[in-house]
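Justification of computing resources. Each target in the renewal requires a structure prediction run like the one illustrated here; the chain below, 229 residues long, is used simply to show the kind of job we budget for.
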Amino acid sequence: MKSQVRHYRGNEASVTFDAPRCIHAEVCVRGLPQVFDTSRRPWILPDEGDPKRLERVVLGCPTGALRMAPPTDRKIEKGAAAAATILPEEPRKKNSASITPDGPYYVRGNLEIEETPGAEVVKDTRVAFCRCGHSENKPLCDESHARVGFRCEAAVTPGSEPAPIADETAPVRFTPFPNGPLAFRGPLTISGRGGARVTLDQGKLCRCGHSKNRPLCDGSHREAGFRAP
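Resulting structure tokens:
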């Protein structure tokens, strides 16, 4: 997973921005336009907003591109690139995945990610997983769905009744399979169109957009010739 973190420093609070994760959901520019303004440089000025409001807006970023960081000394130039200390973030008590029409899976909670099967586990609290198969930052979304004209509704059709979940607060681990689905093991509540939802403790999310049992994989990626690391 690519990472390019910049540190935007303020006297009351600081913010980090990981550019490859940003897919322009615009939560930040709508929530605090005086802090987040893409028409200027630096485009983030943390001291232009109330720190508590700033934190709420940053936590609203669905991809995790924005994070809170400790305030720094006034002598350090705002917007300067530097290694940043990111403040710990409390995950949501229950893991959730929201399906966006023609877009990614927005996932929040106590997350563990393997970039490939058996790879080092990366812990996170907010991510957007690619659902179109074209991202160059797999398994994360990089907004390629818009570029390629990806079309896939936000359906949740779980089929059979899921088994009871022993501990819905446990972590969930995601592992993308080459040319196949995004497998998960651990409690995950998946939400889609019209408020439909299902909670599972393991499963495989479709990454090719062809499954007839979306969001779960039904093997359609093989017939579709889906290719993704």
